[in-house]
Amino acid sequence: MFSGGHGEISMTDEQPTSWALKVLRRFEPILHFTSGERFFPIDVERYLAECSLWKYKPEGPPELLIGEGEITIDNLTTPRVGSPGTIFYLKFIEPPDLVEYARYRIRQVVRSFSRHDEQEMFHPGRGRLARVGFGSRFVDALFSLTLLLRGRVPGDTATAAVLTYKSMQSKQERYAYYGRVVRENGWVILQYWYLYPFNNWRSGFYGANDHEADWEMVSVYCYEESNTESDISTEAQLKPQWVAYASHEFSGDDLRRRWDDPELRKVIAADGGNHPIVYVGAGSHASYFSPGEYLIELELPFLAPLVVFADSLHDFWHKVLKLGSAQPEKPKFNIFRIPFVDYARGDGASIGPQQKKQWESRPLSIDTPWAIGYRGLWGLYTNDPIAGENAPAGPVYNRKGDVRQRWYDPLGWAGLDKVASPKDALEVLSNQSLQIQLRCTELEDTIEQKNKKLAGLGMEEVALRGHLHLGELHRNHLQRITLLSNELKSLKHEFAVEQLKLEALQLQKTRVRRGELEPARDHIRHAHYPAPQSNLLLASLAEIFAATSVGILILAVLLLITFARQYLLIGLASMIGFVILLEASFRRRLTTLLNSLAISLAVISLIVLVYEFFWEITVTGVLLAGLFIIIDNLREVFHR
Amino acid sequence: MTFAQRPRSLSIVLTLILLQGLGLLAYGLYLVYLEGWLARDPGTLLGRYLPFAIFKTISYSLVMVLFALLALLLASSLYRIKWWAWTAAISLQGFSMLSALIEYLSHRPNYTGMLISIALVFYLNQSEVQDVFRGSWRDQHDR
C-alpha cells in the first residue's frame, strides 16, 4: 500500500522480483529518436555523480548543500526542512570551460558544412512560424521577449550539457530505463520511466523551453489470463491490452491506444516479446505513436482569459449558431496559444530490442530510496514564473512536492480507471446486473406498497368530498395524493430506466462472451496527429515572409510614427490588411479570409440595422409573437 | 442533384441572390433614368456640372448593373453547384455590405440591401450549404 497525497490508495506496488523484471523486459518499448537528438535515457547513479545539491531561498542567494561528485543516495534522501518558498534542487551543469565551449561550437559549424554526420544533424524543415497565422506569430514574438525578463536556463548550458553527456557516454555507453510493476483493479501496469539529463527543446529545436533533467514515462497495461502467479508460465500469459505515452502535460483517455489499434506500431521479437514503438520528440522527449512533426500549443497564464474568450466564440459559432462546416477531425485553433513544433520523426538513433542500442533495465518501486526519499527538483531551478524552464521533480513527485497522478493513480492518469480488464469484464458486468436487479426488486416492492396507499387515499378523498365540515381535511388529502402520486411517478420512471440498463448489460455480456471488442478508437476525443507536411503556396517565400513579417511590421510602425504620424492609423490598417491578404494567399486560406471579412461586415451591418430600426424591430417582434399565439390557439380550436 | 434534393438553405440562398441581382439591376437602371433626367435640367445642381454628373451617373450605374449581372450569373452557378460559386458569392456579399456601409456613412442608406446581404452571409455559412460546395470542390479536384 502506498500513502499518496490523496489518501490511502489500494494499489499494490510489485516488488522487483525476477518475474517483474522478466515481464518488463517482455514489453519494453523501442524508442525512435529524431536525427540531431543529443540526450538519451541515463541511469540515476551516473547522473547524480555529475550533480551538486542546492537550496533556493526566496531571500538571499542559493546555498550549496552537497558539492559535485559528493552526492550519494544516502545524503540525497536525508530529510530536509526549509522555510516556505524553499526549494531543493540538483544542478547538473556548471558554466562550461570557455576553450572547450569554443572548440565545440567551431566543430559544430564545420560539421554543418560537411555531410559526414548527416545522421546526427537536425534539419528543421518547414518552421513552426510558417505553420501558423500572423496573430499567433505576434503572440509568439511577445513570448520570446518575456524570456529576457523571466528566469531561464542560460544560453550556453545546453552546449555544456552536450559536452558533459558525451564525456559520460564515452566512458561507458549505457541506456537505462526504470521499470515499475503495479497491480490495480485486475490490471498489471508496467511503467517505463526514462531520465534524460537535459531537455534542449528551445535551444536545439526551436521549442518552448530548456531545462535540466527530464522524466518521461510509457505505460503498458496488461491482464493475466491465469491467476497462478507463482507459475513460471504466467509471464507468457500476461496479455497487453492498452498502452499510454506521456506527452507534455496531457492526461486522460486521449493518451492511450489499444494494443490492436493500427496507429500503435510494434515489433515482435524472436523470444515472443512484443514491443511498442515510441517516437520521441526532439529535445522535448515527449512520446508519440506515429512519426511526424507535431504542432504543440502552449498557453500562457496571462493570456488564459483571451484563450477562453476565443474558444467560446468558436463554440458559439459552431455549436449554438451551427454555422461553418462540420469537420470534427480539424483541431480547434486559437491564436492566443503559442505554437511550437515537436519533431518526432524517428529518423535518428533507436534504443530497444532488435536495435543497435540496448536497454539496461533498472527496478523502480516504493522501496527505491532516491525515488521516494528525494522530493526536490532533478535539475536547475531558474525561478521561472511559468515554470517551463524549471527542472521537473522525480517520477513520484511534482514540482510542489506532492505525489504525481501517474504514480499514485496510473489507471486514472490514462483514463483506464473506468475500464474493467478483459479478465474481469464478465464478473464486473454480472455484479452490476445483480445490483440493478436488487434495486429493481426493491423498487417493485415500494411501488406496490405506494400504489396501495395511493388507492386508499383516493377512496378516502372521494368519501370526504362534499362534506362542508371536512373541507380542511379534504384539502390536506388532496395535497397528500398529489405528493404521493408524484413520488410514484418518479419511482416508476426509475424502475423503467433500471430495466433498460439491465437489458443493455445483458446485451453487453453476450458481446463480451463472444469476445467482441468495442471499436479501438472510440475513447479518443482529440487525437494528436502530425501536422501535414506541405500545403503552402510558394513554400520558401512563405517561410521567409513568416519569419520576417512581425519584425517588419514593428519597424514600419516605428517609421510611420517618426516620419508620417498623421497617417499612422490608415498606414497601420493598410499594412495589416496587406499582411493578412498575403498570409491567406500563402496558406491557401483566401476563402476563409473572405468569409471572415464578410461575417465581420455582416455583424457591423446588423448593429447598424438594430440601431436604426430598434423600435420597429421590437414592435415587429412583439406583433409576430402575438400573431403566432393567436394562430396557434385558433388552430387548436378549429382542430378540436 | 435535383432541385428537391438541394438543402433548403441553398434554395433560400438562390432566391436571395436572384432578388439581390434584380434589385441591383433595377436600382442601376433607375439611377440612369433619375440622374439622367436631373442632368438634363439646367436648373439643378447636377445640371450645372453636366460632364462630371454624366460621368458619375454612368460609372455608378454601370457598377450597379455590373454587380447585378454578376449576381444573376452567380445565381445560375450556385444553381449548378459550381465549386467556385460559394467563394464568389461570399465575396460579392462582402463588397455589397462594404458599399452599403459606405453609403450609410454618406447618408444614403440602403437598408434593404444590407438586410439581404446579412441573410445571405448567414445562409452561405450554414454547414449544409458549405458541405455541398466542398463536395463539389473535391469532385472537381479528384478528377
Features:
heterodimer; A: 640 residues; alpha+beta; seven-stranded mixed sheet; five-stranded mixed sheet; 19 helices; 19 strands; disordered N terminus; B: 143 residues; mainly alpha; 6 helices; 0% strand; elongated
Show the helix and strand layout.
The complex is a heterodimer of chains A (640) and B (143).
Chain A (H helix, E strand, L loop, with lengths): L1 E3 L2 E3 L2 E2 L4 H9 L3 E3 L11 H6 L2 E5 L6 E4 L6 H4 L10 E5 L6 H16 L14 H4 L2 H16 L7 H15 L4 E9 L2 E14 H5 L4 E15 L9 H4 E8 L10 E3 L7 E3 L5 E7 L6 E2 L3 E7 L5 H17 L17 E7 L5 E2 L8 E4 L5 H5 L31 H4 L1 H4 L8 H43 L6 H43 L25 H25 L4 H19 L3 H23 L1 H25 L2
Helix pairs in contact in A: 14-15, 16-17, 17-18
Chain B lengths: L7 H33 L4 H4 L1 H30 L5 H21 L5 H14 L2 H16 L1
Helix pairs in contact in B: 1-3, 1-5, 3-4, 4-5
- What structural category characterises the helix and strand content of chain A? alpha+beta
Main sheet of chain A, how many strands, which sense, barrel?
A: 7 strands, mixed
Write down the overall mean pLDDT of chain A: 84
From the spread of the alpha carbons, the general shape of chain B counts as: elongated
Largest sheet of chain B: none
Helix coverage percent of chain A = 40-55%
State the end-to-end distance of chain A.
Answer: 71 Å
Roughly what is the average pLDDT of chain B, rounded to an integer?
A: 79
* Count of folded domains of chain B: 1
Explain how this protein is built.
The complex is a heterodimer of chains A (640) and B (143). Mean pLDDT of chain A is 84; it is low at 1-10. In chain A, 45% of the residues lie in helices and 17% in strands. Chain A has helices at 18-26, 44-49, 73-76, 98-113, 128-131, 134-149, 157-171, 201-205, 234-237, 304-320, 369-373, 405-408, 410-413, 422-464, 471-513, 539-563, 568-586, 590-612, 614-638, and strands spanning 2-4, 7-9, 12-13, 30-32, 52-56, 63-66, 87-91, 176-184, 187-200, 210-224, 238-245, 256-258, 266-268, 274-280, 287-288, 292-298, 338-344, 350-351, 360-363. Chain A has 640 residues and is α+β, with helices and mostly antiparallel strands. Chain B is an all-alpha fold. Chain B has one domain (9-138). In chain B, helix 3 (50-79) packs antiparallel against helix 4 (85-105) and helix 4 runs antiparallel to helix 5. Chain B starts with 7 loop residues before the first helix and ends with a helix. The A-B interface holds A 322-326, 590-591, 594-595, 597-599, 601-602, 604-606, 608-609, 612-613 and B 86-87, 90-91, 93-94, 97-98, 100-101, 104, 109, 111, 114-115, 117-118, 121-122, 124-127, 130-131, 134.
